[in-house]
Amino acid sequence: MSKSTPINQISSLPTSGGDESMQMPIVQDILNEISQSESMSTPPPMTQDGRSEFNAPSVNYQMDPNIQPLPNQGFQNTMAMPNLLQYQQQLLTPPKNTESFLNTLMSEVKLPLLTALIYLIMASPKVMRVITSNIAFTVTGDVINTSGYILLAVLTGILFFIGKFMMNKLEN
């Protein structure tokens, strides 16, 4: 069997060095806490900041006198709460739509209509015939090759950019 000392007899044992201040402070704190909890049923005394004496640091720190402490209002600021609630309500409510349905529909449909119109123009056989007859590298035999499709895509992009620019100028 192992030789062990019961915890309530530890304080009566002589220390190894003879000097009790040489023991580790945390061990001494634990022993003091155990002995006080056995002798008293009342809670441990509290320090200024609300912690028990056993958890309080051993050094009392002083605040720099040049620093002003903040008022201890916490979340009890009565002026901030209505503003916060009002902001939350603004986020949750959808914005009021002042435009009519027809105006909204027209503004949303402009770009898809422009895209469809440009596609119809560029895919027409007359435009294809003009491009293939005037630009030789776009055709292999009677079929449009990859470079012909790339040229059509570039021309379509340019037409789209010009059309979008013109629509924006007409709105303003």
Count of alpha/pi helices: 5
Q: Averaging pLDDT over every residue, what do you get? A: 76
Beta content: under 5%
- In angstroms, what separates the terminal alpha carbons? 96 Å
Q: What is the 3D form?
A: elongated
Tally of strands = 2
Helix-strand string = HHHHEEH
Radius of gyration: 43 Å
Sheet/helix structural class:
mainly alpha
Q: Give a quick account of the main beta sheet: strands, pairing sense, barrel closure.
A: 2 strands, antiparallel
Spatial strand arrangement across the major sheet: 1-2
Question: Uncertain runs with pLDDT below 50, 5 residues or more?
Answer: none
In which range does the helix fraction lie? Answer: 40-55%
Describe the structure.
With 172 residues, the chain is an all-alpha fold. Strands 1-2 form a two-stranded antiparallel sheet. The termini are far apart. Among the domains are: 15-54, no CATH class; 101-171. It has helices at residues 25-39, 80-92, 101-123, 125-134, 146-171; strands spanning 139-140, 143-144. Helix 3 packs antiparallel against helix 5 (146-171).
